[in-house]
Specification:
Layout lengths: L2 E3 L4 E2 L5 E7 L3 H11 L6 E2 L2 E5 H9 L3 E2 L2 H11 L9
Parallel strand pairs: 1-6
Antiparallel strand pairs: 1-3, 2-3, 3-5, 4-5
Length: about 90
């Protein structure tokens, strides 16, 4: 099981900084971890969950591996789980 989380550095709603939560194994693993973390399904976006800075420490305590944003993206792409936004 490898769920990854990057540092909360992305500005978002409610004036908080946000992190990305991904799996480099499977989306099923990611969704199961999000349930344990009590992240709502609406936070899922194609291949990751957007989570506020208030969740970061709890995610790590539950077993998520804290990595840089660059490392998170590298491992997500390498896993084959990366889903790019389709432009119309």
């Amino acid at each position: 099981m490898t769920v990854l989380i990057d540092p909360p550095m992305w500005p978002g709603p409610r004036g908080l900084l946000w992190s990305h939560l991904v799996s480099d194994t499977s989306l099923e693993e990611l969704h199961a971890f999000a349930v344990r973390l009590e992240v709502p399904p609406r936070a899922f976006d194609r291949d990751h969950y957007d989570v506020p800075e208030t969740v970061h420490a709890r995610a790590v305590a539950l077993g998520a591996e804290a990595v840089t944003s660059r490392e998170l993206l590298r491992r997500l792409i390498a896993s084959g789980l990366r889903r790019r936004r389709v432009r119309r």
